[in-house]
Each structure stands twice: as structure tokens, then as C-alpha cells.
Amino acid sequence: MSVYTRVERDQLESFLENYSLGTLRSFQGISDGIENTNYFVTTTQGKYVLTLFEALTAEELPFFLDLMAYLAKHEVPSASPLADRQGDFLRELNGKPAALVQRLSGRGVEKPNEAQCAALGRMLGRLHRVGQGFEPQRKNSRDVDWWPEAATKVMSKLSTADQQQLQSEMAYQASQSRDGLPRGVIHADLFCDNALFDGDQLTGIIDFYYACSDHLLYDLAVTVNDWCKKSDGSLDEQRTQALLSNYHHSFPLTAQDQQLWPVMLRAAALRFWLSRLLDKSFPRDGEMTHIKDPEEYGQILRDRIARADYYQNLWP
Fold this sequence. Notes:
Elements: H1 9-16, E1 24-29, E2 37-43, E3 46-52, H2 61-73, E4 91-93, E5 96-102, H3 114-130, H4 147-154, H5 160-174, E6 183-186, E7 195-198, E8 201-205, E9 212-215, H6 216-227, H7 237-250, H8 255-281, H9 294-306, H10 308-313
Antiparallel strand pairs: 1-2, 2-3, 3-5, 4-5, 6-9, 7-8
Helix pairs in contact: 3-7, 4-8, 5-8, 6-8, 8-9
């Protein structure tokens, strides 16, 4: 989350007239994240998050907003969108599609502990399980079809070693079959800053704007790569087993999942290495922006390659 499009108080007050949320008390830009413009908004009736969508179109957004509402109804603590007086989740503000969602309690965690990883694993498994009943489909916008396009854009800006690593990993991933892996709706970006905790209690999962239909094991790999990493990029054994074991209780893992686990850990690392390389190479202007270091995920990818056998056996 960032601020690319500035919103003035009078503009926000006019926007809020379309809702039954009382009058505006305060609002503040949010600097975390990288994709959309976000503000904390407080009215006389509650606390909310306002999002102005910088890339997604009004035609694409119903999938995400409907998913968030669906999950909230099925006891997955997501930030449910708020309908305006006409019953619509989506409006326009400053020429951008915009939506208000509930502001959940709790805070993100920088260094998750074993109990927090366990809680997140249980809820991710539940999300995957109840998500089987969500009928709309959306292609993953950053899947294997996107990787070559992104690689072409950044290749000339990389060192020779990074170029070789990128080309080698894309070739490896292209050679791996994922046939038979369970598919469904996934979060696709469940990093530590996209889950909220009060102590060790999970209070919410947020920022579903990369959600899509894809392999569930890939979503688990994205999550483990961030929540269970150590400072050197490797995976912490206790946190990894806590997350995977508790996920397994909610959505059982299989022998095929274990076989392809190292492949998916590498695929998840490659995806975020590429996206961070793009963000660093082609930064967008904004009042408050946050660009994450791509080398963190270059290092994670190298570790997942080097320790593939170990991680395959680090399993419930």
C-alpha cells in the first residue's frame, strides 16, 4: 500500500456522502506496500481503509471485492468491503476506481514467531477450503506466462550472474509439470504485512488484490517463503513445520504436494524476485512509496535451489 494519488479532505467528504458512515473525523495516507493508494479513514461511526486502485480496472475489481465479502461470511477474517447507499462496493474518486473496507484490529508482524505461523497456517488452510465454493475465476496475472515478459524488461539491468540465474530458473520451472495439484482461489501475496495480529491471535488477512485462481501449493509456498525465512534467507525449521502442520489440519496435504514442494518454493521466490526487480528498475512517482529490495528474493531463490532436498523433507 502506498499513496500515488493525493486525496484532499473536501474530496473525501464528498465521497463519503455516498455512504451511511457518519461524518469524516480524520484520514491519513499509508506508506506500506507498493501497488495502490491507501488511506486510513475515521468517521463518527467507525474506522475504515480507503483504496484507490492504480492499475486494476473497474471491470476487474468485482472479483476481489466479492471474494473478500465471501470470505468474511465464511469465517475467514478478511476486510469486508462496504456497500454504498446503492448497494455497490465500487465507486470512483479522483478518476480512479475506489472502495472502502472495514479496518480490522491488530497489527502486522515483522518477525513472526512459531505460534503466529501456526495460526496463519490454520487460517490459510481454511481459506483454501472454503474458497473451493467461490465460483468466479481469475487468471494469475503474475504466473509462468508473465515471467518471460518481466524478465525481458529487466534483463539488461542485471549482472551477468543474475541474468544466468534468471534464465536458468525460468527454464527449470518450464520443465516441471504441475498437473494434478489442487487448484482454487488463492491470496497470492500473503506476506507478513498482509496479516494482522493481536499478540499471537490472528485478527485479519488483508490486501487481496493479487488474489486469483491457481495452485494452492503455490500460495502456501509464497506464504512460507516470507513467514518462515531467517535473516540469511533460509527457512526456519520450527516455524516452517508449525505453519505447514497447521495448514495440513485445515486442508490436508498429499504426497504429490511434498514431491513438488521444492519446485513451488522456487517458483514463489522467482515471482517476487522478478516483481521487485521491475519495481526497482521502473519506479512509479508517488507522494509516499515503498520499494522492496529485490536481492532479498534473489538470495531466497538461491537458497531454495541449494537446499531443495532438505526442504522437501521438512514436511508434516
